Amino acid sequence: MIERYTTPRMKDLWSDRNRFQKWLDIEILACEAMAGLGVIPKSAVRTIKRKAKFDVKRILQIEEKTKHDVIAFVTNVAENIGEQGKYIHFGMTSSDILDTSLSVLMKEAGLVILEDLQVTAKIIRKRALQHKHTPMMGRTHGVHAEPITLGLKFALWFSEVTRHMERLKRSIDTISVGKISGAVGTFPYLNPRVERYVCRKLKIKPAPISSQIVQRDRHAEFLSTLALIAASIEKFATEIRSLQRTEILELEEGFSKGQKGSSIMPHKRNPITCERLCGLARLIRTNALASMENVALWHERDISHSSVERVIIPDSTILVDYMLVQFNRVMENLLVYPENMMANLDKTKGMIFSGRLLLELGRKTKSKEEAYRIVQENAMKAWKEKANFRDLILADRRVLKLLSKKEIEACFDLERSLGNVNYIFRRVFK
Q1: pTM
Q2: Where in the chain is the domain with CATH 1.20.200.10?
Q3: Residue 215: CB partners within 8 Å, gap ≥ 6?
Q4: Which of 42, 193, 282, 399 is most buried, by CB atoms within 10 Å?
Q5: Is the pLDDT of residue 27 over 90?
Q6: 3-class DSSP state for residue 417?
C-alpha cells in the first residue's frame, strides 16, 4: 500500500538504504568523537571512514539468523572494514543508533511536509484573493444562513494551514533530539561529549535525559500534528465534495480529458480525489492514537512500541505528504461556478436577509420579540407558499408603519452584508 501513495522524496527517505546510511553516519560520527577523546585510535577512524560500507541484501541475510537488525548491520559493516571494524558501535546500545537516526528521519520528513504546507498556503491564498468578492451562500447546519464570499471560505482555510505550519515547526523541534547514552541512559561506557558531537553534526540536540530510548511523547506530538493536518485536509475536501453535489454545484473537482466517473453511468463527474483524501485522513488519526499508546512502556524500555512505529511513522509521513500534494492539485484545478452561487443565493427569495431586517425593525418596535415575530411569520409563509420574502415584507402593513420602502430595500442589499470582507482579509493576510 505504501508504494502506491509514496511521492519520490518520501519513498527515498524511508528506504532501507537511506535508513542504513543514517545508521552508518552515526556510527562514524561516534568513532570520530571517541577518537578525539582518545578512546579509540585516530588511525582506526581513518580506516573506518575509508572502508565502511554496507549491503542491504547482506544485512537482511544476517538478520534472518540473528533476529536483530542492528547486530546484522554492524556485522556487515565490520566485514567490510576488517580488524578496525571492532570499534564500530563501541560502547553503544542499539537504541543509540535507532532512536537518533529515527529523529533525523522524522525531522527530514517533517521538513518535506512543511514545504508541502507552504505550497498549500500559497495556492489557497491565491484562490482567496481571486475570489475575495465572489458572493456565495453561507450555510449552518447545511441550511442557508447569510451571504459570505468564496474568498472568505478560502481565507479561513489559509488561516488554518498557517497554524499547522507553526504546529509542525514546534513538533519538528520536539522530535529533533538524539541520544548516545547507553542501555539505560546513564552513559556507562561513553563520555557525554560523544553524544554532543554526534548530535551537533546531525543538526539535532541531545535529549536532556533519556532511558534506553528517546521518550515517545515526542513521537506522539509529531504524529498528532500530522493527524491535525490530515483532519484539515479532510475538512477542506469534504466542503468541496458537498459543494459539488448536483443540487448545489458551486465548486467542482477538476475533471481531466479522458477521465471517467462510472462504468455504467457516462454522465458521472465524481470528486474522487477529495473522497480519497477523506478516507486517508482516517488512517492518520488511527496512527496518531497508536503513537499515544507507545508512550507507556515498562521501566526504562520495552520493545512493544518498536513494531508499531516502524509502520505508523513512515506511513503517516508518506500519506500526509501524498495528501498535501494531491490537495494542492485539486485546489489548482478547482472549477468555480459563480453563476450557480448567485442562483443559490436567490433560492430562498430574500429570506437570507432576515437578520438585517430583524435589527432594523427592532429599533422601531417596542421589543425585539415583536420584531422577531413579524419577521419569522413572513419567513415561514415564504417557506410554505414558496413566495418572495421581500414582496411579503413590502406588503406587510406592520412593517410599512415602521420602515420606509427605501429602508426595507436596504435590508436586502448584498453588498451591505459583505461590507467587512476587506477588513477580514487585512487581518488574515497581514
Answers
A1: 0.94
A2: 93-340
A3: 207, 295
A4: 399
A5: yes
A6: helix
